[in-house]
Design brief:
mainly alpha; 5% strand; 77 residues; elongated; homodimer
């Protein structure tokens, strides 16, 4: 664990980008992907908490996450 | 490592949702968030690879990730 603000692993980011067809990946690119995914995860999670409160629940369910993600992301499927 | 398709940790997903104000988090919700983040990471990474190829580069840079994320996500900032 490098620092307390960092939940997602950098090695994972390299792997995902490599798997997607990259020959080489700069350190800054892996770090940028991590930063973006962390921001997105927090945005989705916060909206999921709002949605679950709105439904009178204290437990976050997968439906909350799904609806939150739909609101946060461009979905074309 | 639970299985080869899983790059992001489940414990991390619980932490992110808890940090966002959840009292309780169902296993399915944590799993759903992981699934969604993995899909997004792959979509961003693939588009970043395309963008870097388009620019005649073999190394993925942070600019590729940033532009790819802009295309994949709804950004209101």
């Amino acid at each position: 664990m490098s620092n307390s603000n960092t939940e997602l692993g950098l090695a994972t980011m390299y792997r995902v980008i490599k798997k997607s067809g990259a020959e080489r990946v700069s350190d800054e690119a892996a770090n940028e992907l991590r930063k973006i995914l962390e921001e997105i995860s927090i945005r989705i999670a916060k909206q999921a908490v709002d949605l679950s409160n709105h439904a009178g629940r204290k437990t976050i369910k997968s439906d909350d996450i799904r609806l939150a993600a739909k609101n946060v992301l461009k979905h074309d499927q």
